[in-house]
Design goal:
301 residues; eight-stranded mixed sheet; Rossmann fold; 12 strands; N-(1-d-carboxylethyl)-l-norvaline Dehydrogenase, domain 2
Length: 301
């Protein structure tokens, strides 16, 4: 399969490296990362250890094959501009997979790509961009892929197969939109609170006050999801959020890492979208509103 990774940072470089064992892969990333890969190869350490040669470019013009699968792995706030830059390599048979977090990526991709070409992936792998050319694989996870209409199509089965053959444990979901929402609800609790308090995920359950806040945010975000058409149990969502916190207790969320680096966060795509949707459906979103304001003030966003 001919695969392009659009936004070769942490997760994109990891998936690109694994997929390139059995497929033709081109990474599209920033010049410093591309130059480091060209000079020394792509290095992955942590849970996966490798150093490999892989095609890397800082613009899509250099992609010379017909793209079967374009995997979007930029941060959600970059989706619209990145997909716009990539439109010249997207033809009507190209499948575009958003492997990102956030609730506004499909809409951004739809500006350029026919909705029927878009699929979504949710992954629990963890990766960290150490320095140009070097990625740390911090947690081995699972990946779910799905068509937006829930169909188990031949193309999604084919991509599932390609992922599994490359060592990326993957299953097809019949309700990827709900899976995406579940992850967004969990992230809406963990990311902004850890970012604001500067703590590891695990501390959210060590501190009884923070645990209460997590529960309340989780209930509010679940209410928004359900108003939007999901069917999530409030108690199961609280349980799931706490499970994720326990499983990743040593980790520092991507949002806290962005704040520490003085970078933009994905707050608008997670809690920000929850606020917008909640207001539309007249659901109380006061906690999510506060979290958006706190993180934005704190991170100068
Ligand atoms: N990392 C994880 O463990 C993980 C796990 C699951 C899901 N996710 C999700 O996956 C997405 C990516 O996360 P990440 O941690 O991999 O982010 P990341 O390390 O910041 O990777 C994104 C990369 O894309 C680059 N980029 C942005 N626009 C580009 C463009 N037009 N052309 C080429 N490169 C471009 C960025 O460069 P600049 O930094 O210079 O902008 C950055 O190097 C997010 O939605 C995240 O929530 C991440």
């Amino acid at each position: 399969m001919n695969i392009v990774i659009l936004g070769a940072g942490a997760i994109g470089s990891l998936f690109g490296a694994l997929l390139s064992k059995k497929n033709d892969v081109v990474l599209i990333g920033r010049t410093s990362h591309v130059n480091a890969i060209r000079k020394n190869g792509l290095t992955i350490d942590g849970k996966t250890q490798l150093n490999m040669k892989i095609s890397a470019e800082d613009a899509v013009d250099a992609v010379s094959f017909s793209v079967d699968l374009l995997i979007v792995t930029v941060k959600s706030y970059d989706t619209e501009s990145a997909i716009d830059q990539a439109k010249q390599i997207i033809h009507n048979k190209t499948v575009v997979l958003s492997l990102q977090n956030g609730l506004d990526n499909i809409k951004a991709i739809e500006h350029v790509v026919d909705r029927r070409q878009i699929i979504v992936g949710v992954t629990t792998h963890g990766a960290f961009f150490s320095k140009p050319g070097c990625i740390k694989h911090t947690g081995v996870g699972k990946t779910i892929l799905g068509e937006l209409d829930g169909e188990t199509s031949d193309r999604i089965k084919n991509i599932e197969n390609v992922f599994n053959k490359s060592g990326i444990e993957t299953v097809v979901s019949k309700n990827i939109i709900e899976d995406m929402w579940v992850k967004a609800v969990v992230n809406s609790c963990i990311n902004p609170i850890t970012a604001f308090f500067g703590c590891s995920n695990g501390y959210l359950l060590e501190n009884p006050l923070l645990e209460k806040i997590v529960e309340k945010v989780c209930l509010e975000s679940t209410n928004v999801a359900n108003a939007y058409g999901m069917n999530l149990s409030r108690q199961i969502m609280i349980k799931k959020t706490k499970e994720v916190i326990r499983e990743t207790s040593e980790n520092y969320s991507s949002m806290i890492q962005s704040v520490r680096k003085g970078r933009k966060t994905e707050i608008d795509s997670i809690n920000g979208v929850l606020v917008d949707i909640g207001r539309t459906y007249d659901v109380d979103v006061s906690l999510n509103e506060i979290l958006v304001s706190l993180v934005k003030t704190f991170s100068n966003q």
